[in-house]
Specification:
Elements lengths: L1 E5 L2 E7 L10 E5 L5 H9 L2 E5 L3 H16 L3 H13 L2 H19 L2 E5 L14 H8 L7 E4 H16 L1 E2 L10 E2 L11 H9 L8 E4 L5 H8 L5 E5 L2 H13 L6 E5 L8 E6 L22 H9 L4 E12 L1 H4 L5 H10 L2 E9 L14 H6 L2 E8 L1
Parallel strand pairs: 2-6, 3-4, 4-5, 9-10, 9-12, 10-11, 12-13
Antiparallel strand pairs: 1-2, 5-6, 7-8, 13-15, 14-15
Helix pairs in contact: 1-2, 5-6
Length: about 375
């Protein structure tokens, strides 16, 4: 629960944070009279600013906090640049993650109360009920408090869900869109989808899709003629998202969804997995598609693949080498895990990323991103 006082009255509500952040220890009521500089100082000190004024002014305050968070004093910026220049790629990555986390904490300080039906009782407040219901499920009837930044993320996810992401590998429009749900990683990096769409199929009888996510790879395999796909995920949100996408694409009869940690029972001639690419701790649910501390899913897939692969079959591992360029994992380590799993490399198809950050020289990790290659490793029984 979170507590605050406003106009001489005490209030309480349930604290809600998708990132798992703790409720601010100190919360004050804030409105349109609060200067942005004062708000930024208080946010940096860890104070929660529970907004009681105009909703659109709260958005303007958040934008003002963003500008201040990104505008470092000259001496601080020079010191940070000097530290980054002397850092190893791994140290630069961790410094970048620390800076991201600190920025997120400051920008999450503007708080909004949602009533028991997800309405917001502020002037000029939008109707976020559908976005909240899609992300959090039906309203419980209890008031909740969430950060404005997170609420705007819900709105963004709602728009992505409505619009969808066009996947050329699924054919011509309009039947080639994947609609990501909140908390499920969107397939906006299409190069890894293209690898699965182009690699020669060892069989069209059966395939396992380990970590189904939005269902995009299962859909691509089914559209390529694979008669039956068994797809797994341990996240209920991902399974619900995949189910909806497969229904929209008319593929529910070809793809079976199971809630499993890694593999379904049995063996298949093709087993596909696109695990998180970076061995680091995720700070929110949606980051779990990118960050996996200790490479748990990657190691689990490689260790268990041989037991679920038919003789002559192939395991397709879709993996970026960004972790190698950041010195978070070595190529030798990856090859050792493959060998330890009783596997051998049958071949590899590579593609360069096409996303904007790979060409953004101002990005803190530009050198590693510019060198990044995404690969489809074709693995067989040793």
């Amino acid at each position: 629960m979170i507590e605050w006082s406003s106009q001489g009255q005490s209030h309480t509500a349930q604290w809600r944070s998708e990132s798992g952040a703790s409720a601010p220890r100190r919360v004050i009521a804030a409105d349109d009279t609060l200067p942005a500089d004062t708000a930024y100082r208080m946010a940096c000190e860890g104070t929660g600013l529970l907004w009681t004024g105009d909703f659109q002014n709260a958005r303007m305050l958040l934008q003002a906090l963003m500008r201040r968070a990104d505008r470092k004093p000259r001496k601080v910026a020079a010191k940070a640049a000097q530290k980054a220049a002397a850092a190893t790629p791994a140290e630069a990555f961790h410094l970048h993650r620390q800076a991201q986390a600190q920025r997120a904490r400051v920008l999450s300080s503007v708080l909004i109360v949602l009533e028991g039906d997800y309405t917001i009782a502020l002037r000029r407040a939008p109707d976020l009920r559908q976005a909240c219901t899609e992300a959090w499920g039906p309203a419980s009837g209890n008031r909740v408090v969430a950060s404005l930044r997170e609420l705007l993320g819900l709105v963004g996810a709602h728009e992505w869900r409505k619009k969808g992401v066009e996947i050329p590998a699924l054919g011509a429009p309009p039947g080639n869109r994947i609609h990501p749900h909140y908390g499920v990683f969107s397939p906006v990096r299409g190069e890894y989808v293209d690898l699965v769409a182009q690699a020669p199929l060892p069989s069209k009888a059966l395939a396992f899709d380990v970590g189904v996510g939005t269902g995009v790879l299962s859909a691509v395999l089914a559209r390529r003629g694979v008669q039956r796909v068994v797809a797994t995920d341990q996240d209920p949100r991902a399974l619900a998202c995949a189910r909806e996408n497969l229904q929209r694409l008319g593929l529910t009869g070809r793809v079976e969804l199971q809630q499993q940690d890694l593999f379904p029972e049995g063996k298949a001639p093709l087993v596909v997995c696109n695990p998180p690419w970076l061995p680091a701790r995720a700070s929110s649910p949606i980051e779990r598609a990118v960050y996996d501390e200790g490479s748990g899913m990657l190691c689990g897939f490689l260790a268990g693949l041989a037991a679920h692969l038919e003789p002559g079959g192939e395991g397709w591992l879709i993996l970026s080498d960004l972790a190698e360029h950041l010195q978070l994992r070595t190529r030798e380590q990856l090859l050792e895990w493959i060998a330890q799993g009783g596997l051998k490399v049958l071949g590899r198809q590579d593609v360069k990323p096409r996303h904007g950050k790979s060409a953004d020289a101002s990005d803190a990790l530009h050198a590693a991103r510019a060198a990044e290659v995404t690969s489809l490793w074709r693995l067989g029984l040793a």
